[in-house]
Amino acid sequence: MFRKEGLTLYSLLQVKSGGNIHACMQACRPCSSPATGLISSSIAWRNLREHVDGIFDLHLKDLLQDERRCRDMIKEYDGIVLDYSRQRATSCTFKFLLALAKEAGVKEKIDMMFEGKHINKTEDRAVLHVALRAPRTEKIVCDGKNVVPDVWDVLDKIKCFSERVRSGSWVGQTGKVLKDVVAIGIGGSYLGPLFAYTALQTGAELVQLLANVDPIDVAIALNGLCPETTLVVIVSKTFTTQETMLNAKTMRTWLIASVGKEGIAKHMVAVSTNLKLVKEFGLDPDNAFAFWDWVGGRYSVCSAVGLLPLAIQYGFNKVNQFLEGAWSIDSHFRCAPLEDNIPVILGLISIWNVSFLRCPARAILPYSQALQKLAPHIQQVSMESNGKGVSMDGRPLDFHAGEIDFGEPGTNGQHSFYQLIHQVITAVYSPTHVCEPISNHDELMCNFFAQPDALAYGKTWEQAKAEGISDDLIPHKIFTGNRPSLNILLPTLDAYTLGQLLALYEHRVVVQGFIWGINSFDQWGVELGKSLAGKVRLSMNSVRMKGEELKGYNYSTTYLLNRYLKGKTLYKFHKSMLLDGKDKVHLRDIRQLVLLFFFDLIYHMTITSYT
Ligand SMILES: O=P(O)(O)OC[C@H]1O[C@H](O)[C@H](O)[C@@H](O)[C@@H]1O
């Protein structure tokens, strides 16, 4: 009944209908434990597979007429409103989904997470990012130790340091007040901080974040900065990530040229779990802000990774509010019954769309420009966490898990890819940064409220005809609708609600992983790419230093690498090229010399038919 291809939203509309919902309800069998270890062999999963057949008859425009259903599909908690009535699901669907959550032991797994159990089995680690936002009085034990006091030691250190930088009492080596901060990191050490930092932006930025190892990015970051008044923050959980370490070395060279080696302690600090390597890099451990291996990189926004830049820029008060917002959702996630638990409901909706309706693409569309970096952050949180092909115990999955996430703030996205929007819409319904533009915000929100219904209802031939559209244009102007979305409304966008939003998305991803039975906390696929890059690095050095021939690559890679190395003889990117009079950057020169390579990745996700 399904077409044999994925990544298409239209599959929803092309499938043949089958059965009806009441028949499916009667067919519902009591649940029992999965026989093979995969959740797909459970009765709860099979009930959903049978149930999904009945759904294809139903159109959202009909489902939306049932007010009781719609009322049941709106949940509120601590100012957040979740409306999932525009999902292609009935109340019965949610009964089946909740049965699946119970079958998968979601509640028990949430408890294990909060209890510091080593649920990241492949790395033998606890998963305790929730401990990062726990109040000082809370007790969260990991490996026999309450970790909350350690968390607060670092928070106190962040408070003290950030206040000194902000007040000007922390001065650079030459006695000048620091005016600029560059935070270097990549992946989780960049995307999460960037999301939070951008969301709270007020206009006067002290901090900038640098990720890419591309020399142009480095040059742009340094452009106009004076080493004597610049603080560099190296952010790396492992302190081994090549890109970050290379950028850190470039920055160190840049600083030393002006303030000398002895000035580094005043101009460079680090955020890491690896304090030994921080010291070996030449930084004073007193200038390091620690975190712990039980914080995954992509879940590290609430550690010093995200909080140090936030505290320096916006003050520690905002950091406190951010943590309180996240903790509000953490507490709800831990304690609320599954049927009222907003992150659990969000996770179940994702499971329903991906594994049963087979819609593995999700657009995240905040109707708030301040949330412009939400989608890039969630791309990593979701796709690195749940882009897994095997279960926790190494069995290949026989169902589809993981989504393709993408997004853009509305209304920009409307003018780009809205033909494909499909699942999540986030909005702020009261503006925070009111310059004057109440009417601008109203305009924005008109679009926000219009889009979900446009997607749900579509437009029929008859409606188009009644609008006087000519027959030849009607095929282009009718829309089948029935595209699901869900809405999240925040009362405002401030540090508190930002923390709530972050925790909601983090926990949604975790719930999905709990149900699919995968490990949402490791990233071995990324490691493969890293080790292959290491091999290429060695080969490049052998060619350059020893004049050796490239060996061990296929024809295509050898050809491209040789072309690159040949072009590289023109490329002389060194200190004097980067700097002119110590702080002036030759962007144009660098641009001319850098060879650009890019590639299109064609990712084909195959979804096989149900039998
Ligand atoms: O913070 P770092 O140790 O430098 O790691 C930065 C990033 O490295 C890799 O790409 C991992 O897959 C990410 O999860 C991590 O956030």
From TrEMBL:
Residues annotated as coiled-coil are none
Q: Which pathway or pathways does this protein act in?
A: Carbohydrate degradation; glycolysis; D-glyceraldehyde 3-phosphate and glycerone phosphate from D-glucose: step 2/4
Record-linked InterPro entries: G6P_Isomerase, G6P_Isomerase_C, Phosphoglucose_isomerase_CS, SIS_dom_sf, SIS_PGI_1, SIS_PGI_2
Keyword Isomerase: yes or no? yes
Q: What class of enzyme is it?
A: isomerase
Which UniProt keywords are listed? Gluconeogenesis, Glycolysis, Isomerase
Q: Which Gene3D superfamilies match?
A: 1.10.1390.10, Glucose-6-phosphate isomerase like protein, domain 1 (3.40.50.10490)
Superkingdom of this protein's organism: Eukaryota
EC number of this enzyme: 5.3.1.9
Entries under Pfam families matching the protein: PGI (PF00342)
The reaction(s) annotated as catalysed by this protein in its Swiss-Prot or TrEMBL entry are: alpha-D-glucose 6-phosphate = beta-D-fructose 6-phosphate
* Sequence similarity: Belongs to the GPI family.
Query: What assembly does the database describe for this protein?
Result: Homodimer.
Q: What name goes with this protein?
A: Glucose-6-phosphate isomerase
Highest lineage ranks of the organism?
Eukaryota, Viridiplantae, Streptophyta, Embryophyta, Bryophyta
